[in-house]
Design brief:
This protein is an alpha/beta fold. It has two domains: 62 residues, 2,3-Dihydroxybiphenyl 1,2-Dioxygenase, domain 1 (Roll), CATH 3.10.180; 76 residues, 2,3-Dihydroxybiphenyl 1,2-Dioxygenase, domain 1, CATH 3.10.180. The chain is built from two helices and eight strands; from the N terminus they run E-H-E-E-E-E-H-E-E-E. It has a four-stranded mixed beta sheet with strand order 1-4-3-2, with helices on one face. Strands 5-8-7-6 form a four-stranded mixed beta sheet, with helices on one face. The radius of gyration is 16 Å and the shape is globular.
């Protein structure tokens, strides 16, 4: 089977933070697929990209601390079409009082295959301590 693609990911969050994800992914151009309260105090948000991949944000069943350096997913990377989109994301994050991490935004030449390409990223934690990367890869 060689025709598979990534379909969806479920990301467990606290419903009180759902507005951040709604605004952030709307800013990135994703469309809302599903947005409702599934039971009192518990919301679910489904958003999709132009390729049909979707993310689903929902309350967790258990309260545990997320550690992106432990077993499990480290970060969720979102590709953007140009360097200006990464810089625009930095502005969005500042407006929402979210700090960029790991000395980003910055170019990462160690992730490029040649001197003509770039890997330009910003990394940050969401209000639920989920690590995200917004990255442009392509010509300098």
């Amino acid at each position: 089977m060689n025709n598979s693609t990534l379909g969806h990911l479920q990301v467990n969050i606290r419903s009180v933070n759902i507005e951040f994800y709604r605004e952030f992914f709307s800013f990135l151009g994703w469309k809302t697929l599903f947005d409702t309260e599934i039971e009192p105090g518990k919301k679910m948000l489904g958003i999709g990209d132009k390729n049909g991949t979707s993310l689903w944000f929902v309350d967790p069943l258990k309260e545990v601390k997320n550690d992106y350096d432990g077993i499990g997913m480290n970060h969720l990377g979102i590709s953007v079409p140009d360097k200006a989109s990464v810089d625009g994301t930095v502005d969005f994050l500042k407006a929402h009082n979210i700090q960029a991490l790991f000395e980003t935004p910055r170019h990462r030449p160690e992730f490029c295959g040649d001197d003509k390409s770039t890997y330009y990223q910003v990394m940050f934690e969401s209000p639920d301590k989920i690590l995200f990367e917004v990255v442009y890869t392509g010509p300098k």
